[in-house]
Amino acid sequence: MMLSTTLLRLSVPAKPANRARLRRFMEGVTLWLAFLLLLFVQPLYAEANVADEVQPGLLHFTDGRGDWQEPALVLESDFDVTVSGLIADSRLTRRFRNTSDDWREGVFVFPLPEEASVYALTMTVGERTITGKVRPKEQARQEYAEARDSGRQAATVEQQRPNLFTSRVANIPPGEDITIELRYQQPVDYRDGQFSLRLPTTLTPRYMPGPLRPSGEASAWNKGWAIATREVPDAAAISPFTVQPEDVAADSHRVRISVSLNAGLPLADVTSPGHDLETRVDGQQVHVSPSAGAVLMNRDFVLRWRPVRGREPVAAVFHEQFGGEDFLMAMILPGVTPDQVLPRDLIFVIDTSGSMAGESIRQARLALGRGLDTLSGEDRFNVIQFNSQPHALFMAPVAANGNNLARARRYVDRLQAEGGTEMASALSLALGGAGSEATDDAARVRQVVFITDGAVSNEAGLFRQIREQLGDQRLFTVGIGSAPNMHFMREAARWGRGTYTAVSNPTDLGGPLEALFAAMEALVLTGLQTRWPVAGQEVFPERPGDLFRGEPLIQVVRGVAPEGQMAVSGLAPDGKRWQRTLDLGQAAGGTGLHRRWARAKIDSLLDRAKVQGKQPDEDQIVRLAMAHSLMSPFTSFVAVDSKPVRPGDDLLVADSVPTLLPAGTSAGMLRYPQTATLSPLLIALGLVGLMFSAAIVLLRGRVVL
User: Fold this and answer.
1) pLDDT tens per residue across span 311-345
2) Strand, helix or coil for residue 155
3) In which region does residue 550 sit, left (phi positive, over 0), alpha (psi from -120 to 50) or beta (all else)?
4) 576 Cβ neighbours under 8 A, 6+ residues apart
5) pLDDT, tens digit (0-9, with 9 covering 90-100), for 167-213
6) What pTM was estimated for this model as a whole?
7) Is the dihedral angle over the CA atoms 12, 18, 20, 24 positive or is it negative?
8) Helices 459-469, 486-495: inter-axial angle, 10-degree rounding
9) Using CA atoms, how far apart are residues 535 and 544, in angstroms rounded to an integer?
């Protein structure tokens, strides 16, 4: 009734002045409605990508024509890990089970530990086992594509980032499965008297900075939710769809984990910050697994074990022969020196981008609060938050007095997560600008603490920026969330001459952060030098960085027999020379040392290319990777069966297997496959067009009733 009365009034001829006011009013209303509708276009587009018809427990895809496909492949995983000394050897098994009536190709983008050395691939089909071979990347792609198209079963795994890989499995028969087994090793982390191991199971969707690439340029060998940009040309290869556990089959995306610790010394405790554990002792071996059995692949599995007090190792050496050559790995942990705490300029940088929404931003705020608590009256500080752009609380570092600290805590408590992850501008502001101030105080130490989940895709550019802008500062990283990008955390700290840590959940804040901030207060050793009994051998790392409290020096060398002594020297905080020797004749047997050396050699070649601004020596890296059977940026594994199994007239359907959204992450980070038409978006665009049409008509002086 009210609407009819209003229309009737509008239809009555009005005076010119009233008509002008009415026209201006209608113009304003129309333009505001158009603006509001534009704001709602993106949510409607997202809604168009998530169909109401999708049944919980089954994930569907559409092909390029919008036709429905069958339920996605069921993914099952197993980690079987053996820890010996400072190296963990893992057998990762993936089972791709085809529940549909069509032949399938499975594509799965997945994380591995940031220092993983992948050295074997096998494919099992029924009673047949096919051993994979390492090949130059393009050759591996070609062999796989030819096998897939000819109906033969095949599998390939290639590296996208040091901690991100893609697995492809071709010609999975209807109602059957194919099993892929990866073998890799990773170093065990040892700091502050505690060993730790991280097994990543999922990844946080990464931000893709930079302008879009022209459509005519070559695209990456994969499909994802992201589009290639100038800074991230392989965006499509590192952006797997991310879904909730209820979006996949009830028995999919579960992992069973079994870890055997050959510690060689009595353990005080074995813990995990994110999983309840079942522990069984068998002589000197300790067998550990999650007490829940198969667990969701939405949280990294972190395992920590601590020797009985007084039995912590302070030095160790391991030996292996491979290909007729000797390989040694030595570890020395300097003793704790008297603290000499210097006044600091401490800059806290907190990531408030959209990927931090949910539990991550709460963890980050708590972590920053812990850092503020460590400041003394001699320190100065600043707080910088960043998402699509950075913002500093103060123009320059200010004194850590009560008023400034209270202001900072109020500021941090109000921070919310939204927007993009433009980390480059935040680094520029932290390492210069609001992160520093002209001063002649040479005794003042400048430190930057970067708190983030590391959900970035342009890591190489950021590492280069850190090296160029660091100066005499030190950069420390704190990984936040249940699945942080640990490759970024570790490498950013290495290029920043600092150290790193990770926080898995709020209950895990205490230990890791206390160790980090304690290490930041005083260095243990600087100017480190090592001397091996045989000169001129390739040792990695070539130039050890500064050591912080509780951090050991670990080096691996080729061509040195287990005899003689290794000497280490450095400068203590009080300026005195520190030195220690290690008897190589006491070396224990080790396995996989040659792979660790080869991986370190490859990393050094890549680092040298970054520093020089050149392309890495691909031929040398390929030869090194082939000799040690390793995956690298330029080599991949491929396994191909010799007998065709798929009839030539049967269609092969490709499924991009999604990853699970990390636990505690906001649902706004979901990246679903397309599962519906764009009708809601088209309706919204139509309404926008009508509003603009009405505005144009009104501007011409006509009232449409």
Assistant:
1) 888 899 999 999 999 999 999 988 765 556 678 89
2) strand
3) left
4) none
5) 999 999 999 999 999 999 999 999 888 999 999 999 999 999 988 88
6) 0.84
7) negative
8) 20
9) 17
